[in-house]
Design goal:
mainly alpha, Heme Oxygenase, Chain A, about 0% strand, Iron-containing redox enzyme family protein, Haem_Oase-like_multi-hlx
Length: about 350
């Protein structure tokens, strides 16, 4: 993947310096915004995504040593210091009383957090009303995460033990297709992209999605890159698994309404079945088991779950708002997605 087009001074500085041999970057600081402003700050979210990607697959022609260059890590830390307060502000209403929750209450509290954070009806819209072009845009947005699906949460595997570790490995094994390449969920998603006539190259739509979509990916990377945030990462994964089955059924039905064949819907159909099982594993064995071993982590588990839902809801609202105004949900409508 090539470096993306800059969206402001920080991402422009990174784009200028990263092609060079690793060296000290100039001091960079994101401009202050309101409590939630970091989540829609194009320069901040793209810059953070670039910093994180150095620990995933990297960029074409960029020295791998940049990943641990101290000034790069300092820049990443400064950007994260803007993202975390925004997440706390966004989730404050759904996390009331987290500090008093007991470990045995975790499954029920997770369910309550997810119920209270019910978001805009994007899945229903895609099932019943979306045009082929709008569905294609939705898939383009989701490609930022789904083409690396499971990878951010796998950071937790070496950091946990006991019942929680066993549950996480079981969930992740399914995400990676049980060792069969063609059944990996990222590969199933690629098949969906190809069926819709989309470029299935990793990062192909990075320049076209807005900050709020990058924030979905950055939130899970933030939790995954820091051992301190391991419980939030587990809560984040639990939220995805516990809220996945019904939306994915609707996505699959929406594609069938538009005349698509099983190769386009298999990714969504697979999640309907798999996540119904994962939901119980994630709530009871993964998060419940971890909370049993780490009673002080309950608040962070619930914070991770609330963050996953809240940021995803922001992205969903962006798509619906743009479509209802007759506009594209992509940043550059010159990208060809069939109407």
């Amino acid at each position: 993947m090539h470096l993306p087009q800059p969206r402001g001074p920080i991402s422009a500085t990174l784009a200028t310096h990263l092609p060079q041999p690793p060296h000290a970057l100039p001091v960079m600081a994101a401009a202050p915004t309101g409590p939630r402003g970091a989540l829609i700050d194009e320069d901040l979210q793209l810059s953070l995504w670039m910093c994180y990607e150095l620990s995933y697959r990297g960029f074409t022609g960029i020295d791998d040593a940049w990943e641990t260059e101290p000034s790069l890590l300092a820049t990443r830390t400064a950007l994260e210091a803007r993202l975390l307060p925004a997440l706390r502000h966004l989730t404050a209403a759904t996390r009331t009383g987290d500090g008093t929750a007991a470990p045995e209450e975790v499954p029920a509290r997770l369910a309550a957090v997810l119920e209270s954070g019910d978001g805009p009806p994007l899945a229903l819209y895609l099932q019943r009303e979306a045009t082929a072009g709008q569905f294609g845009e939705f898939v383009a947005h989701r490609s930022i995460y789904h083409l690396k699906e499971a990878d951010p949460h796998s950071w937790a595997i070496p950091r946990i033990g006991g019942r929680a570790k066993a549950a996480l490995v079981e969930i992740q094994a399914d995400e990676y297709g049980g060792g069969r390449f063609e059944r990996m969920h990222s590969e199933l998603f690629r098949a969906t992209m190809r069926a819709l006539g989309l470029d299935d190259t990793y990062g192909a739509f990075l320049d076209q999605v807005p900050a709020v979509t990058l924030a979905v990916s950055n939130t899970m990377s933030l939790f995954g890159m820091h051992r301190r945030w391991t419980p939030a990462l587990l809560g984040h994964l639990a939220a995805l698994e516990m809220t996945s089955s019904l939306p994915n059924r609707r996505y699959g039905n929406g594609l069938r309404r538009l005349g698509h064949q099983p190769e386009a819907t298999r990714f969504y159909d697979e999640h309907v079945e798999a996540d119904a099982v994962h939901e119980q594993l994630a709530a009871h064995d993964l998060c419940g088991g971890y909370a049993h071993d780490h009673p002080g982590a309950v608040g962070d588990i619930l914070f991770g779950a609330a963050s996953a839902l809240a940021v995803d809801n922001l992205m969903a609202q962006h798509l619906l708002d743009r479509w209802r105004d007759g506009l594209s949900a992509l940043r550059d409508r010159t990208v060809a997605i069939a109407a």
